[in-house]
Give the backbone structure.
Amino acid sequence: MMRLLLPHFLITISLCLSLSGKQTLPRSTSPPNVIIIIADQMRGDALGILDHPNINTPNLDRMAKEGVLFSDYFVNNPVCVPSRMSMFSGLYPHEHGALSNKGPTRRFSSADNTLLNYFDKKNYRLGWFGKDNHTYDRSVLDSLLDANTSLRREAFRAYSAHTPPHWASSSPWPKEELFAYKTTSDAINFISSQNADSSFFVVLSLFDPHPPYFAPADYVARYPINDIQVPAYINPETLSVRLNQHKEAMLFDLLSESDLKTTLAHYFAAIEWGVDFQVGRILDALETLDIKENTIVLFTSEHGDFMGEYGMVRKGMFLYDALLHVPFIWYGPGHLQQGILSEALVQSVDIVPTLIELTGGTPPSYAGRSLAGLLRGQGQLPDQERIIFASAGYQDIPADYFESPEAPYFSSNSEERPFHSRILDMQTTPVSRTIMARTNEWKLIVSETRAAELYQMRGGKSEEVNLANDPAYAEIQNQLTAAIQEEWPWGN
């Protein structure tokens, strides 16, 4: 399905009818500039235009109204490094080799067969700005980039041993001193310095809304605690032993509703300030420089955040929609359709073939599919019943862990790192493997150490009832199991 996005309401029409009779949009004669803006840990439902009950995202809403918003987009891994490597290579994590933020494969040691190499060969000017890149070795960036600002999070966001996992804070520092503002300014300065006869490829990597959740005080004030709506509680014990153990180990059972609402408020404020406001600055710069007609902007996120689902926050090595479903907005007034909400099922590995085709190249064979025709209004995805995959590595919490757990944040602790960081480090070690197969309606998760999980999503983004091994759903479980075995045989 596709919908026309209008300022105050949505008109629902079929995908075929919405595209029939439309002519191809006028194309510029020079290769389009490309900007990829990547948030960190932003959920796919955290957009005002999707009627989120709390979040305010005027610039992302504006981007969607003038572009194409995909409501059913999923990353291929729930943490930073493998998710980004899939975005830039068009390969699933089990194909490029990084299943978590740990392990032997942690970044690309070469740009070959990735977007950076593609745009370099097309003589694009290359700029990369924002958080530590989590994608390429430093030597690769140094050899290819024309400009690079790589920063870790601000020092005043650092965790101490006694920082709780849901920690959030208002910022007393001037907005211009925060990294979101600085790195966006660097990107704008680079874009402004380009010659009219050359094209540029820019990656702007924003730290927000990554924990610790942090935003200017005036933005936090826009989200009164009493107005915050918490997701309906689903007991993780009914879904997965591993998920429930994660909740217990992270002490999320101790979170009060007030704690959770406070964290949610800071999360939303971090999105509005650290993401949405910065996106608006980029869009305004394109207007001011009169280059928006020949620029394609993609906005997305590395992965999501539990943010209230199952009574938890943050991330983990789990293949649930809270962590895999993220925003996906394409903006290019001179090249792409405008005001479209697409319900096509799409994924990160679709980005590489799409950008190659949009910039005049011919995509080789990829796991993903080019969305260029859909974005231009020339057609639709050939298979609306497609299956998408996400894969990851993990380590179980030891069976005897709860007999002698990590010293929690409220105890006297000689360790410098907080207990929740050590727990996440333990679980992100890729000892075992897990994979998800998902259609619009169904999701199957299998792993090497735990029982399978089957969910009927019904268009939703929360797993509610585990139907695995229910005879009534044996056929769909068998079909998705076969698809998984074909995609990634465990013996390999």
